[in-house]
Design a protein that fits this description.
There is one protein chain. With 138 residues, the chain is mostly helical. The chain has one domain. The termini are close together.
Length: 138
């Protein structure tokens, strides 16, 4: 029996790949490359562990996003788990951005992007847990 994937599964897979690839390259540009090149700035040292963990999460999301489109059950479960962890992380990051805004610092478009990313991840988790979508992965 040949499995048929819905357009929603395709969109979810592509969205996961797009967001996680973008995040991976931002992490690479802002944290990992300066740290590897010997920059001794305090913010890079503090953020390096978060950057390494974030990179691993984003790599896992790319792998699961690719395999979601091939309807592999493990990839759906992995995506839900990693997206949930990412949502937890994004809620902390978003809080920090908005706390800075409330204290009078300038508004960062990055904060808005993180809120949008959080909402998209919640929507994907919700979608991947629907019974009709789960059926496609069996």
């Amino acid at each position: 029996m040949d499995k048929k994937r819905s357009a929603g599964v395709l969109v979810a897979g592509i969205t996961v790949i797009a967001f996680s690839s973008f995040n991976f390259f931002i992490i690479l540009r802002n944290f990992l490359l300066p740290a590897l090149s010997g920059v001794k700035d305090e913010r890079f040292t503090v953020g390096l562990m978060g950057a390494i963990i974030g990179s691993l999460l984003n790599i896992l999301l790319v792998v699961s996003g690719i395999n979601i489109m091939t309807l592999k059950q493990w990839s759906r479960k992995l995506a839900i788990a990693v997206l949930a962890i990412s949502c937890f992380h994004l809620s902390i990051v978003s809080y920090a951005f908005f706390d800075m805004l409330l204290r009078g610092n300038h508004f960062s478009p990055w904060a808005l992007l993180k809120v949008v990313e959080f909402l998209v991840y919640i929507a994907i988790i919700f979608y991947l847990t629907r019974p009709k979508v789960k059926e496609q992965f069996k």
